[in-house]
Amino acid sequence: MISALATDLYELTMAAGYWRAGLLEPATFELFIRRLPSRRSYLIAAGLDDALEYLEGLRFSDSERAWLGDLPQFAHIPREFFDDYLRTFTFTGRVWAIPEGTPVFAGEPLLRVTAPLPAAQIVETALLAIVGFQTNVAAKAARIVDAAQGRPVIEFGARRAHGLGASLAAARAAFIGGCAGTSYVEAARRYGIPASGTMAHSWIQSFATEVAAFREFSRSFEAFGVYLLDTYDTIGAATTLIEAGLKPPMVRLDSGDLVALARQVRAMLDRAGLRDTRIFATGDLDEDRIAEILAAGAPIDGFGVGTMLSTVADAPALSAVYKLVQVERHHERVDVVKLSPGKETWPEPKQVWRVVEGGRAVRDVVAAEDESPIPGATALLTPAMQDGRRVQPSSSLVTLQEHCRQSLAILPPAIRALDAEAAFPVVISDRLAAAGLSAKELHI
Amino acid sequence: MISALATDLYELTMAAGYWRAGLLEPATFELFIRRLPSRRSYLIAAGLDDALEYLEGLRFSDSERAWLGDLPQFAHIPREFFDDYLRTFTFTGRVWAIPEGTPVFAGEPLLRVTAPLPAAQIVETALLAIVGFQTNVAAKAARIVDAAQGRPVIEFGARRAHGLGASLAAARAAFIGGCAGTSYVEAARRYGIPASGTMAHSWIQSFATEVAAFREFSRSFEAFGVYLLDTYDTIGAATTLIEAGLKPPMVRLDSGDLVALARQVRAMLDRAGLRDTRIFATGDLDEDRIAEILAAGAPIDGFGVGTMLSTVADAPALSAVYKLVQVERHHERVDVVKLSPGKETWPEPKQVWRVVEGGRAVRDVVAAEDESPIPGATALLTPAMQDGRRVQPSSSLVTLQEHCRQSLAILPPAIRALDAEAAFPVVISDRLAAAGLSAKELHI
Q1: Which of helix, strand or coil describes residue A282?
Q2: Does B61 touch chain A (CB under 8 A)?
Q3: CA closest to B63 among chain A residues
Q4: Do A166 and B223 touch (CB under 8 A)?
Q5: Per-residue three-class SS string for chain B
Q6: How distant is the Cα of A359 from the closest Cα of chain B, in angstroms?
Q7: What percent of chain A is modeled with pLDDT above 90?
Q8: Residue A200 near chain B (CB below 8 Å)
Q9: CA distance B353 to chain A (A)
Q10: ipTM (interface predicted TM)
């Protein structure tokens, strides 16, 4: 259960202000990514299930209300806000969302939240933090998996993630994006992701000799043994393994010139008849490094990717925002916009249509939610929560991963290139464009 | 309570393997940062208190043990490991640490952990994730606070952090590094950090007119009111505020040319007699942008920094590692090293001495822990945990922030420059250097 205080103070002061001003009618906010990070031509929607769990559990405990009411910022807020409104507060709203695993582009609402204005406001911070991070990691994972050209990529980033909550979320999102497993045990248990691991240098160091360490490892973990070679000297360790007569399922290279070492070790293993021993590589890898290594023809069979994936090191934050698009005033719906330079928003609740022609996604259309369906196009936003309750059970991560794989497969190849050779066309409907223009004129 | 499964699988398979091999004697690991990120000349130790809380709470629940024992990787591990060893497992070790808020440099152990080998191994992943992230954020905060030249910096990054756990940890570390407050309410409540907030564009949009939104805000939050000006047009909003006769304590600029707008708004406020109204700026700020804005003479009185701080956007991961330096074999202590290219380690448990001359820190010396004290120098590593229990209560964050401020103040000014004009001298003691050399010879 996440605390209801897991939000920014201004969400709570504004909620109190709305309540005091009687602004309790439904409002609609949309969560979207303003711009794609550099070198990205898509992101992968992720984090929805955790977001829904947060919304379902949202409550203010007695001690939280008492603490909050004592903050000086709330000195002029009538006590009924804390004693009545927040005491019985739950999230009773409606959420439409793009399913996890779907490729998404800048400006497309990933979530559309409709709830009484104070409630819709309070959840902003958590929704952004949950969905923004996982959407970023899932896309990074998809890029890395693409670069690995069918070789398994294992997520190894728990130790470098931004705390253990991030380790867990990163493992989840990385699996949706296509990783074959995770080293992070809590994620494996919670989400059913295959758990994977090797050995650390400390294993080797803990024994009097490297060969003793290898032999003991073989005794306990034969079928799952991934032998780390670089503690003292990679080629020396490979020689030791072979001379000891061990039959390692896999060896791990973690430092040095991975291409040259993989070739040398492959040749040594082959000469020793260990043709089934696979070579696994780790060590500050990302999609570019993997592409380079494979382009150089390195005989590497799988990759462990840590830091660069779990922190999305080249683009650690998305410009994820949550913007008001419609309020109700005396039961009248009013569309609203923001006109801040470089941060303008489109009014009205929206739907995103993905147009697929000949088995290939050709463009998305962002339209008002009540515009007519576009023939042959799929509506990406679907109901996720009604009256504060999920409308369907959580999907398994395997299902989400498969959805991601299939949805990526129909994108134009140029969109999946590591260097973002093209932008996927995202078109604003005529009605939305006109509404945006007239809203702008209204305020100038 | 953090799950004992909050670790990498290989920590648990190695622990099982050590247990099976009878390697239960104490081992010592050290946590350090291999290299400073680019443009950094120091980091700020942080996260220790959370790390100790994790160690104190470490247990395997029955269901965790059952789940773990069923993993195929453990098929050859005798059941006693799960049914006896893990059932009664607690962390009973000793931790020495550099206090939170202390500036630290590459290669210096921030934590030294001595515990039975399996236990010392299991905690690796969590210690790295907890301490690595907070150490990184605290340093980023210190840089930003330096750039603001005495103006308050508020941490606003919860929404862009890597999930809500990261939001909490970032707020904590940013305060240690010198931030004056946080927007993240849960962090304010848990750690006693001053909570701070403004208003969002949605507040303005929720009312029929901007002036109605300002008036209602004034009614509820007079003394704490920070009026956001850029929803439609910054200068127009400033005019509206003034013409409405409001007396805002503070206004917020969030987009556009902050320098030019701050000047214009300052002049408008002054002409209206609102000399006490302060100007607060936000919007993708970091230390460089703040330095630029202030160098241009912008009349800005405080800064809210979000994304760049809570994700440490320019250096989102430290090369934090946790390396075995000593094991015991049959009650004999044996120093160990790792020789992987570019990742070599120094053997032996260590102490870090900070030498201060004439009120100025002049160098650090990394020595073996049992070398004689260096006259006039301070030993940075001090006891934090003995037999699995803290040796002293947690310090308040205010105390840690003040310790940070004072410790930074005695660093050479060049070390605090945003562009890392110099590296702080960190010297390896003669004994350690000789031990490293002989260890290397032993393995070649």
Answers
A1: coil
A2: no
A3: A189
A4: no
A5: CCCCCCCEHHHHHHHHHHHHHCCCCEEEEEEEECCCCCCCCCEECCCHHHHHHHHHHCCCCHHHHHHHHCCHHHCCCCCHHHHHHCCCCCCCCEEEECCCCCEECCCCCCEEEEEEHHHHHHCHHHHHHHHHHHHHHHHHHHHHHHHCCCCCEEECCHHHCCCHHHHHHHHHHHHHCCCCEECEHHHHHHHCCCECCCCCHHHHHCCCCHHHHHHHHHHHHHHHCEEECCCCCHHHHHHHHHHCCCCCCEEEECCCCHHHHHHHHHHHHHHCCCCCCEEEECCCCCHHHHHHHHHCCCCCCEEEECHHHHCCCCCCCCCEEEEEEEEEECCEEEECCCCCCCCCCCCCCEEEEEEEECCEEEEEEEEECCCCCCCCEEECCEEEEECCEECCCCCCHHHHHHHHHHHHHCCCHHHHCCCCCCCCCEEECHHHHHHHHHHHHHHC
A6: 35
A7: 89
A8: yes
A9: 26
A10: 0.96
The CATH code of domain A9-137+315-443 reads 3.20.140.10
Identify the pLDDT of residue A436.
80
Kindly state whether A379 is in contact with chain B, defined as any CB-CB distance less than 8 angstroms.
no
- Does A197 contact B13 at a Cβ distance shorter than 8 Å? yes
pLDDT attached to residue B376: 87
User: How high is the pLDDT of residue A304?
Assistant: 98
A353 vs A265: CA distance, rounded Å: 50
Predicted structure pTM score: 0.97
Mean residue pLDDT of chain A comes to: 95
Residue B222: predicted pLDDT: 80
Distance CA B322, CA B34 (A): 10
Between positions 242 and 271 of A, the ones with CB within 8 A of B are 254-256
A312 touching B, CB under 8 A?
yes
Distance from CA of A102 to the nearest CA of B (A): 20
A89-123 in b/e burial notation, b at 16+ Cβ within 10 A? bebbbbbbbbbbbbbbbbbbbbbbbbbbbbbbbbb
The verdict on a CB contact (< 8 Å) between A341 and B199 is: no
Looking at the complex, does the CB of residue B144 fall below 8 Å from at least one CB of chain A? Answer: no
Whether chain A has a CB inside 8 Å of the CB on B360: the answer is no
Mutate to test the interface with A, among B339, B340, B343, B444 (most CBs of A within 10 A): B340
Is the pLDDT reported for residue A376 higher than 90? no
Percent of chain B with pLDDT over 90: 89
For residues A176-184, average pLDDT = 98
User: Does the structure show a pLDDT above 90 at B223?
Assistant: no
Does the pLDDT value for residue B310 go beyond 90?
Answer: yes
CB contact under 8 A, A12 and B200: no
Q: Please report the pLDDT score of residue B441 as a whole number.
A: 67
Domain residue ranges in chain B: 24-49+94-135+325-443, 199-278
Q: Do B199-278 and B24-49+94-135+325-443 have the same topology in CATH?
A: no
CATH superfamily of B199-278: Aldolase class I (3.20.20.70)
| Mean pLDDT, rounded, for A94-118 | 98
Residues B327-356: pLDDT tens digits? Answer: 999 999 998 887 777 777 788 899 999 999
Of A71, A186, A220, the CB nearest to B76: A220
Mean pLDDT is highest, among A171-175, A342-346, B435-439, for A171-175
pLDDT score of A339: 77
* Residues on chain A touching B160 (C-beta within 8 angstroms): 128-129, 132, 317-318, 320
**Residues of chain A contacting residue B75, judged by C-beta atoms under 8 Å apart:** 223
Asked if the Cβ–Cβ distance from B205 to A338 is below 8 Å, we say yes
How many angstroms separate the CA of residue A304 from the nearest CA in chain B? 13
Domain over B24-49+94-135+325-443 is classified CATH 3.30.70.580: no
CA A320 to chain B, closest CA, distance in angstroms equals 8
